[in-house]
């Protein structure tokens, strides 16, 4: 009678002997640890950093607008409000970056690691995506004001058709950006759910409990972000429609 | 909590224990290029996670934990996965071990057909980790490990037979 466990382990140990153990020199390993990671967490972190940089550029453009339209109270009011909203979005994104400490630690148990990643992707990441997507109206506000100043020297009023075209363009960009990023993580969410389900140890329940705990905070985040989005659009319309502040 | 060593000292430490990473990459990646990519990613995650390594755990157990978590999470290339071809790089295997080589190939091909969680559990078991250690690494109960191992070994046996019949 063959001892199957022993047979399997013997084969495994033979593999070790056949393959040898030393492959990479320490200098090669040192070069490996100096490279950039390709993990999902790192890609999300990079995406947030890039967006924070972009929002900082929008901020700079709005500050330039304030100087360009100095003495025009209404334009300055729109710029300052946009700057405050952008700063709140940047702070929110930094807060989301801090949550990464939970998912980047690979030294946790497999269940904890996968559950933390899945919880993040199903809650905080959604809010982060909204925060990233709603930067577009502010880019348009800052950019349009600079364009108007350099072309006309004042805020040119747009007609209804222009407003519709611009608004549709912004909404399409916003939705496309959100959808593409969301689609990228959908596959990862499915993979993580499958792995946790394969662990077969109430792992998915752990994620549900985490999500339940975070639900109230998530809802507050989403409501605040949608308010910023709506406020951004209102400001955009104010600039486009040029309500009451033609600047010659 | 451990203070972060310099990169050179850490690389030397990994060099000594690199067999662990090789075993994980052999089970989770296909072909030499994917194995190298995964090896690099595991080294990077070990370096990043090292400040959180607690001395009370064995270094090799911690390495297994990080390596397995990295391999399980590493799904970016799965969409273009080719049929599993382990040990293709025959230059690493001496000719006088051909019979053993076939057995090893068979074992790896069979393990490759398991899901990612089962691969981790069987790998740890083959590495002589006890139920308590496997449970700690996977974050599950010893009972669950025991139940799963019985099922995985049965499945592996079937897969070995299936792989043999496929190749005949």
Short characterization:
The complex is a heterodimer of chains A (248) and B (168). By secondary structure, chain A is mostly helical. Chain A has 10 helices and no strands.
Give the uncertain stretches of chain A in residue-range form. Answer: 244-248
Shape of chain B: globular
Q: Using the alpha-carbon principal axes, give the shape of chain A.
A: elongated
Which percent bin holds the helix content of chain B?
A: 55-70%
As for the CATH topology of the largest domain in chain B, it is: Arc Repressor Mutant, subunit A
Low-confidence runs of chain B: 77-97
CATH second-level architecture of the largest domain in chain B: Orthogonal Bundle
Q: Helical segment tally of chain B?
A: 8
Determine the structural class of chain B based on helices, strands and strand pairing.
Answer: mainly alpha
Biggest interface reads: A-B, 50 and 67 residues
Give an overview in words.
The complex is a heterodimer of chains A (248) and B (168). Helix content of chain A is 81%, strand content 0%. Chain A contains 10 helices and no strands. With 168 residues, chain B is mainly alpha-helical. Chain B folds into 2 domains: 1-82, Rna Polymerase Sigma Factor, Chain: A; 86-168, Arc Repressor Mutant, subunit A, CATH 1.10.10. Chain B is 68% helix and 0% strand. Chain B has helices at 7-16, 18-28, 31-49, 59-73, 98-112, 116-126, 131-138, 142-167. In chain B, helix 3 (31-49) crosses helix 4. At the A-B interface, helix 1, helix 2, helix 6 and helix 9 of A face helix 1, helix 2, helix 3, helix 4 and helix 5 of B.
